[in-house]
Amino acid sequence: MHRVKKTARREPMEDIIYEEPPQDHPLEKYFKTFDDLNAYLITFADCKEIPPRYLDISLLNTQNFHSLTRILNDQGLMEFVQFRDDYFPDLVGMAYSTLRVVFNDENEVEFMFKFKLFKKEYEIGCSELANVWNLTSRGCLFDGKKPLEAWGSNIKQKALEMFNVNRQPRKKVLVNVLTTEMRVLHYLLVYVIMPRSYGYGHIKDEDIITMWAMVSEIKINWTYFIVQHMIRFTKGLSTSGFGYVCLWTKLFNHFKIDVSGEAWRGMVPTSVINTRTLHHMGRNLGEQEQEEQAQEPQEEAQVGPSEQPSMRDLMQMIQSLGQNMDDRFQRIEDNQTRIDRRLQRMERHMNIQEKEDEDQE
To answer: What are the helix (H) ranges across 76-217?
Structure first.
């Protein structure tokens, strides 16, 4: 795409709620009404984007990940997980703050995707949106969270058994219990397909169910799936950022929105998922499968209390726990900052209302 001069990202806006359309505000050109501007200032002005990532396709061949290659091809996700582009974090936040998805009551697969930007409203249907994103718009209407009734009962238990995961009550499952290939699939899920801003090293229920569906060759309507996750980013933003920033670049290009002069960011070396990424997981990929096969007879011969975790496993657990603690502390700090800002805005708004009521009396 056409590259523009990189500019500094805007600082958070002043703590104020506008009661009328601003005439000289720096964001005035982006929003048509004061309601749209207020929605952005209250919910998105302080939020950060989830940095996008993409897969180096050579990883699948060099590591002989045949099952993962088959899964991505069958699900029509091969090109999607490789996509990368420059993105516009400020514009994406503004678009998210005005995002509305209107579903057809009779046929939920048919919906209209709507957002506002530069005082204009844009809308696109499901099929056309799928073409823009190069995704399928056919298959199960799965949202990544609630299993479908047609799949039967005890889906979560079946998924845990499929991946040989032993989930203890009130304990989180770490990704190092998965095989190398399935761990890469989980990595793609939490960073690319259903990105989140924390908890990458844990297997959530929605992760294991989605992986079960993909491995079981259940066709999923990925356009519907991703739109559902986009809707999540518009709710409860005090605990997360917003993802799919490169997909928004595709939409901006599709609607020929002029983004010249806007602050943009490009992909960085850490954005690529390759062998170096996998080594950061603590995996010696060239020898991993041989080690697992060599350990199987020994594990069968050992009995309960005599089994001890290896030093490598202990180091992986310590590293994962340390990363999770850092993520949690950062999340708490970010939440407190956003809560303080929101309380200040609400207090200003109440003061304005009280003053208006006094003037009317």
So the answer is: 78-82, 89-97, 126-133, 155-162, 180-188, 205-215
Q: Are the CB atoms for 285 and 180 separated by under 8 Å? A: yes
360 found inside a domain: no
The C-alpha atoms of residue 145 and residue 15 are separated, in whole angstroms, by 35
Q: Does any domain span residue 297?
A: no
Confirm if 141 and 222 have CB atoms less than 8 A apart: no
> Is residue 130 over pLDDT 60?
yes
pTM of the model: 0.73
Residue 28 lies in a domain: no
Domains in the chain: how many in total?
1
pLDDT band at 12 (very low <50, low <70, confident <90, very high): very low
Q: CB neighbours of 51 closer than 8 A, spacing ≥ 6?
A: 268, 270, 271
Element housing 112 (H / E): strand 111-117
Range of the domain at 149: 34-284+311-352
pLDDT of residue 121: 94
Q: Does 200 map to a domain?
A: yes
pLDDT > 90 in the chain, percent: 40
Q: Which amino acid is at 307?
A: E
**Sign of the C-alpha dihedral computed for residues 281, 284, 286 and 289 taken in this order:** negative
Pairing of strands 111-117, 100-103: antiparallel
124 bridge partner residues: 113
Q: Which tokens belong to 82?
A: 């490789």
